[in-house]
Design goal:
With about 375 residues, this protein is α/β, with parallel strands linked by helices. The protein contains 13 helices and 15 strands. The strands form 4 sheets. Strands 2-10-9-8-5-3-4 form a 7-stranded mixed β-sheet, sandwiched between helices. A 4-stranded antiparallel β-sheet has the order 11-12-15-14, covered by helices on one side. It has a two-stranded parallel ribbon with strand order 1-13. Helix 2 crosses helix 9, helix 11 packs across helix 12 and helix 12 packs antiparallel against helix 13. The mean pLDDT is about 95. The structure holds 4'-deoxy-4'-aminopyridoxal-5'-phosphate. The site of 4'-deoxy-4'-aminopyridoxal-5'-phosphate has 12 residues, from helix 3.
């Protein structure tokens, strides 16, 4: 019997008590000056955190709406876009862009690998692209894209808006909107910010805002039009659509925790050290990390089963041991599981889940793995 099932999927991630408490606060009117001040402080704080001299948007929605918002505000029917995809979520842009009547070119990698920079550059040189999308961490593969390097490359292609999906990265990977030449970055509250699902955050550069302006007074989309939200982000006492009040408070608390931790570079280091130790530990018990070394995310691990381990049996056993992990997507359904390790988790959470994985693997395969991953992890974490 377990009191609680620990959710270790790649989002929603565990929500710590300080953030959960914000969800339970008594509601205020969205025009209440106290809430207006909190909303404004959150928007401004997020802009500073990601070093964005353009605008920051905090809107009630999930990450998918942010994807749509990014495309809708930077392209018009008939424009050409380049989608660089490292998996399922990169591919999601294909549908979004096709429905919008864009001309879509796609560069796809094998799952677990990345599209080389040289290939991106060669493709960008072929046509005039209105925008290019790149997923910082594709949650389906656990692959991290070299966003800073691609951002450098984009300086040569000044007419192309560089859109980065940070849903599984922002708040854990070190990101810098101005410094990395990113035009649009977005995420959802439920990932590395460790807040309940329901908010999207989007950072837009001056260049992206100018692109929106060039599209005219209105665009076909209503709820995700930058022009509708800009007055609210400047002055949240104005109304466009009802803000998710308690989620904004929860996000404000999350931001406070991130700043108290030392900011994004410290958070990146914590995630990196933890992920490397976890990935060695999981390999030590016979699981294969799908992403190639050098391209592995620090926010989650996508783990292929050893021969003979049944996905459903493993995940059901692990759930009985107190842990929920996610299954593989698309071609990897049944072949791997996905383990989230981003946001506000600590060494105790990781030891617990590694131990649960050992117990589940032992039960379903009979392999002598008890204590192996935990020992490996603890040793690596203790090393300088
Ligand atoms: N992009 C990435 C990289 C994701 O991981 C996800 C969600 N797992 C999304 C986009 C879509 O976000 P949401 O589920 O919040 O709509």
């Amino acid at each position: 019997m377990f009191n609680e099932k620990q959710v270790m999927i790649p989002g929603p991630t565990p929500v710590v008590k300080a953030i959960r408490d914000e969800m339970a606060r008594e509601i205020q009117a969205f025009g209440d000056p106290r809430f207006v001040a909190d909303y404004k402080a959150t928007i401004d704080g997020l802009g500073q955190l990601l070093n964005c001299s353009g605008k920051t948007f905090v809107v009630a929605a999930s990450g998918t709406l942010a994807m749509e918002m990014a495309i809708s505000n930077t392209t018009k029917r008939g424009d050409r876009v380049l989608i660089v995809s490292h998996g399922f979520f990169g591919d999601r842009f294909i549908d979004i862009c096709t429905r919008k009547g864009l001309v879509v070119d796609v560069l796809q990698s094998e799952w677990g690998q990345i599209v080389p920079l040289t290939q991106i550059e060669a493709q960008l040189s072929q046509h005039a692209y209105a925008a290019m999308t790149l997923t910082h961490v594709d949650t389906s593969t656990g692959v991290v894209a070299p966003v800073a390097e691609v951002g450098e490359l984009m300086r040569k292609f000044a007419d192309t808006i560089f859109i980065v999906d940070g849903v599984c990265a922002t708040g854990a990977e070190n990101e810098d909107v101005d410094g990395m030449n990113i035009d649009i970055l977005f995420t959802g509250s439920q990932k590395a910010f460790g807040v309940c699902p329901g908010l999207m955050m989007l950072w837009a550069s001056q260049k992206a805002l100018a692109r929106r302006e060039s599209l005219g007074e209105t665009i076909p989309e209503y709820y995700c039009d930058f022009a509708k939200w800009l007055p609210i982000m400047d002055d949240p006492s104005k109304y466009f659509a009802t803000p998710a009040i308690n989620l904004v408070w929860a996000l404000q608390k999350s931001l406070e925790l991130i700043v108290a931790e030392g900011g994004l570079s410290v958070r990146d280091e914590r995630h990196r050290k933890n992920a490397l130790a976890m990935q060695s530990a999981l390999e030590a018990i016979g699981l294969r990390v799908l992403a190639e070394p050098g391209h592995r995310a620090i926010t989650l691990s996508n783990l292929c089963y050893p021969e003979g381990v049944d996905d459903l049996q493993f995940r059901t056993t692990l759930a009985a041991e107190g842990f929920t992990v996610a299954g593989g997507l698309a071609n990897y359904a049944g072949k791997m599981f996905r383990l989230g390790h981003m946001g506000n988790i600590d060494i105790n959470d990781v030891v617990a889940v590694l131990s649960g994985i050992e117990r589940a693997l032992h039960q379903v395969s009979g392999k002598d793995v008890l204590g192996v991953a935990v020992t490996c992890y603890l040793k690596e974490m203790a090393a300088k």
